[in-house]
Amino acid sequence: MMNQTAIVTGASEGLGKSLAIEIASRGINLVLVALPLSGLPELASFIRKNFEVKVNFLEIDLTDAESYPSIFEYLRVQQITAGMLVNNAGVGNWSWFEDMNIGFYKKQIELNVITPVLLTRLFLAQANADATSYILNVGSLGGLFVVPKKQVYGATKSFIRYFTKCLQLELHELNVKISLLSPGGINTKPELLVMNNKLKGISKATIMEPGDVARIAIDGLLKGKKEIIPGWINRLLVVLNSLLPAGVKDIMIRRRLASVIES
Ligand SMILES: NC(=O)c1ccc[n+]([C@@H]2O[C@H](COP(=O)([O-])OP(=O)(O)OC[C@H]3O[C@@H](n4cnc5c(N)ncnc54)[C@H](OP(=O)(O)O)[C@@H]3O)[C@@H](O)[C@H]2O)c1
């Protein structure tokens, strides 16, 4: 992977920042993408100082239709062929459906669904067929479990699950490794930390730190794992989810999350 370049979307904070640092620690160059004024120049110089990699960054809004071709035009001008795409940028929510406005849902669907699909299409078009290319699509266990207050978010992550699994089938004869990352809760920001601290028992034990998720994700991606579920408790919950009847799951989810659903 030396001299390879990875595009990481939503790299300014949270899981994306940890993924960028993890990728740099493996000697892979970076193109960081996030909104303007989100700290990308500082992150780029931190990574350059600590790892022997080249770091470029693009401050753009990924819900803007012109942003997708502009990333690949930038790479073409810089004579960079990206060998890895990390579709991480995404927006979550924890709110009743009627509590968010239509503008929020439009952005959420654009960022979580349209952006990864179009970037994947453009990434594959420029990929070097003679070298292995890697795509990491950041999904969520929320795309598998039906959880109250995550109605649109969970649906966008179900989309990513289907999209990724279908591409894995379509492209299995090509030199492309595509992984779906399905994390449970991650302590990526203070408000999530506060919410996650209210959880109890198994629900609390499912929560992980972004650095740990990033390390497991990049290990899995480079090994060509089709789905990466960080944490053994999360993997156990996925198995239980496939075995239990829907009615029983509904009761369990309501009981386990009672303290946070009402907050
Ligand atoms: N946190 C969790 O518990 C959890 C669990 C499972 C899956 N995930 C998934 O992991 C991924 C990262 O989540 P996170 O918690 O790390 O999120 P986060 O801390 O909110 O970071 C989101 C990143 O996306 C960027 N971004 C947001 N809107 C953008 C836009 N319009 N254009 C370009 N970049 C934009 C943000 O940039 P700015 O800094 O400029 O806003 C930021 O870098 C998401 O796909 C999420 O669904 C998270």
UniProtKB/TrEMBL annotation:
One of its GO terms (cellular component) is membrane. It comes from the Bacteria. GO terms for molecular function: oxidoreductase activity. The keyword Oxidoreductase applies. The keyword Oxidoreductase applies. Belongs to the short-chain dehydrogenases/reductases (SDR) family. This is Short-subunit dehydrogenase. It comes from Mucilaginibacter oryzae.
